Amino acid sequence: MSSTWKYAVAYLLILQFTLGLLVPESWTYHYRVPYDAFKEGPQTLELALNHIEREIRSEGLSDYVILLGDSVMYSGPGGPERSIGYYMERLAEAGGRSLRVFNLAQPAMQVGDVYIVLDKLRRRGIATDRLVINLTYAGFVNRQDGTPIVYWLGDDLKQVDPEAWGRYRASLVSSPQATISRTPVERLNAGLRRLIPLLAYQPVLKGRLLQAVLSTAEVYDTRPWTEKPGLPELMKEYMYQRGFSPEPFDMTNANPQIDFLERILAQTADHPPLVFLTPTNQVLMAANTTHPGYQANLRAVDAWFAEQAVVYRNWESALPDRLFTDQVHLTPEGYEVLAGMILQTLEEMRADALSQP
Questions:
Q1: Cβ(347)–Cβ(96) under 8 Å?
Q2: pLDDT, the chain, mean
Q3: Is the pTM of this model over 0.70?
Q4: How far is CA 122 from the centre of its chain?
Q5: Of 64, 174, 265, 267, which is the most exposed, with the fewest CB atoms less than 10 Å away?
Q6: What is the C-alpha separation between 4 and 64, in angstroms, rounded?
Q7: pLDDT at 95
Q8: Sequence-ordered list of residues with C-beta below 8 angstroms from that of 309, at least 6 positions apart, any chain
């Protein structure tokens, strides 16, 4: 090997192991994992987990909460300092409590993704005894249109749960929506991104570069839904209506939603999580939410959770329509209210635990 190649290899090795020190941690985690980077490469989650693990260990944290879920838990469309985790920390601080909240939710995350993230946390020794998961009505709807039960993290399912991988592999590979390596080359690239930090940081650096050059940062339209004249008509389109289907839910593990919820609850049996059904704009979606089939499905979900080792809250109709930016996403004020509801429920859970003999 020539001296030039030796220097090049040495440079790459040094860069690989020092890049994490050069990239600001806020680029990979700031009250949540930035969606712009995550959608370019879900391995960005690993970088965020590295940051969280270091923070927990270096600061000796024991009072912290993990948030998992979809775009509502992520707190779109507002920015990170208008998110549920941010508001929970501020509300706790106002009450004299130093609480850390780590938000690992992402838009479009399904319950299968949540199961995989939970496994990643447990493998790192990150406590999940204060875990909060949001679910949507749409998650229980029949997935005959091909909606994947693992949207982002399909490449991890085989390692996390070979049995589940065998059951769902075909549906994930055939779904154009699922983020999964389908070809040998894609699988090789996915493996390299896990092994080489330099490649893992590529989506983060790309996202920052695009923001700087092209001003492509997330656009935050947090106006109330009443200030969006075209929204009622938009909600009539199939892509939105399917998520409010009144067809009876299959509440057995033949439904992928139930199957993965059972897997999650089996992993968290020692410390049951808080699971809540996401609030829905009851005014905007009145034609759907008042349908007898829709209401029957809500009762079926409530009944299923009543039989599980979990703290469950049905907050589907808990918030006034003025706090919504659309059918399910909230204004900053709405996320602050929801953060308060979560925090209060966690306090009740903690009080109950302390009162047990």
A1: no
A2: 89
A3: yes
A4: 16
A5: 174
A6: 49
A7: 93
A8: 265, 269, 272
Nearest alpha-carbon partner for 155 in 126, 116, 122, 203 = 116
Q: Among residues 96, 94, 104, which one has the least CA distance to residue 30?
A: 104
Token pair recorded at residue 262: 């059972």
Distance, in Å, from the CA atom of 337 to the CA atom of 92, rounded to the nearest integer, reads 13
Q: Is 351 helix (H, G, I), strand (E, B) or coil?
A: helix
Q: Is 205 exposed, middle or buried (0-12, 13-18, 19+ CB in 10 A)?
A: middle
Q: What does 31-61 look like in DSSP terms, one character per residue?
A: SS--HHHHHH-TTHHHHHHHHHHHHHHHHT-
- pLDDT interval class at 284 (50, 70, 90): very high
Q: What is 3-312+328-352's CATH number? A: 3.40.50.1110
